[in-house]
Amino acid sequence: MTININGADTPVPADPRVSLLDLLREHLHLSGTKKGCNQGACGACTVLVDGDRRILSCMALAVQYAGHAVTTVEGLAADGALHPLQQAFVEHDGFQCGYCTPGQICSAIGMQAELRRGVPSYVTGDLAAPSIALSHDELRERMSGNLCRCGAYNGIAAAIVEHHGKEAP
């Protein structure tokens, strides 16, 4: 059994108790995904599964993702260029210490995919609408699981809004 991580097949650990986060950090030395609280409360460990579904890797066992594709922040860049959302974070000062940044970026990519699929949030007004706009409240609700101790939220939000505007159909 293997997990495809950033485009490379990786054997599932023999120990079924290994979290996906520990597989990434301790076994594969992919240090972009951070271990913040290790309880699923801070979002620093957010990665993408099967393209654009965001999960908290500290709360997932690696064996659960056998046969799936996992993308970490290291897997977002292509051909030596930053992912457009990574570039937007740079341009809008969407980080200070940078510890939460990988999780914020992966979560924002997953959040934008949820919007495209019409997945409602707690603050979505019209549940029958064919699409959901990225309003101020939608953005903050959908990103509320990703904490930033430095308080760089204004830059984070500006980067996401800019990227979403360029990505929107």
TrEMBL record:
A Pfam short name: Fer2
Q: Which UniProt keywords apply?
A: 2Fe-2S, Iron, Iron-sulfur, Metal-binding, Oxidoreductase
Q: Gene3D superfamilies, alphabetically?
A: 3.10.20.30, [2Fe-2S]-binding domain
Indicate the segments forming the 2Fe-2S ferredoxin-type domain, all copies: 1-76
InterPro entries xrefs: 2Fe-2S-bd, 2Fe-2S-bd_dom_sf, 2Fe-2S_ferredoxin-like_sf, 2Fe-2S_ferredoxin-type, 2Fe2S_fd_BS, Aldehyde_Oxdr_Iron-Sulfur, Beta-grasp_dom_sf
- Its domain of life reads Bacteria
Q: Which CDD domains match?
A: fer2 (cd00207)
Can you provide one Gene Ontology molecular function annotated for this UniProt record?
oxidoreductase activity, acting on the aldehyde or oxo group of donors
Q: What protein name is recorded for this chain?
A: 2Fe-2S iron-sulfur cluster binding domain-containing protein
Q: What broad taxonomic lineage does this protein's source fall under?
A: Bacteria, Pseudomonadati, Pseudomonadota, Betaproteobacteria, Burkholderiales
